Amino acid sequence: EAIGELRNSYKGSKDPGVLHNLGIVYQSIGDHRNAVAIFTRTLADDPSNADGHVRLVKAMVSLGRKDAAQAHVHHLERLSASKPELLPTLKMTRRFLDEPDNKSRPQ
């Protein structure tokens, strides 16, 4: 029901924040395929969205797509070069990517 309401909200407003929130909902219920699709769309509109990259990495890793996730870690590296406040986020994301078993961890 919440997903339907968010979808309707996004259709009505086209607010990228609503779309991002829809991706978070998909991720929280374990629907990583839809989360990947949503975060990919949000990042196409705003490639500097660090949270979008982190969430996309986690969703991709949950689907066993570590190689694809690595590209978004590299993007976070580039973002953190001009935004040092992102360094802890980058470190956490690298650690997540390097852990052997992420599929069973909550997103």
Architecture overview:
The chain is an all-alpha fold. It has six helices and no strands. It is globular. It starts with a helix and ends in a 9-residue tail after the last helix. The model has no long low-confidence stretch (mean pLDDT 87).
What is this entry, summarized?
With 107 residues, this protein is mainly alpha-helical. It contains six helices and no strands.
Tags for this model:
107 residues, mainly alpha, single chain, 6 helices, globular
The shape, in one word, is: globular
Distance between the termini: 20 Å
Q: What's the multimeric state?
A: single chain
Radius of gyration: 14 Å
Biggest sheet character: none
Structural class by sheet pairing and helices:
mainly alpha
Order of helices and strands: HHHHHH
Strand portion = under 5%
Number of helices: 6
Write the layout of secondary structure elements.
Layout: H1 2-13, H2 16-28, H3 32-45, H4 50-62, H5 66-82, H6 87-98
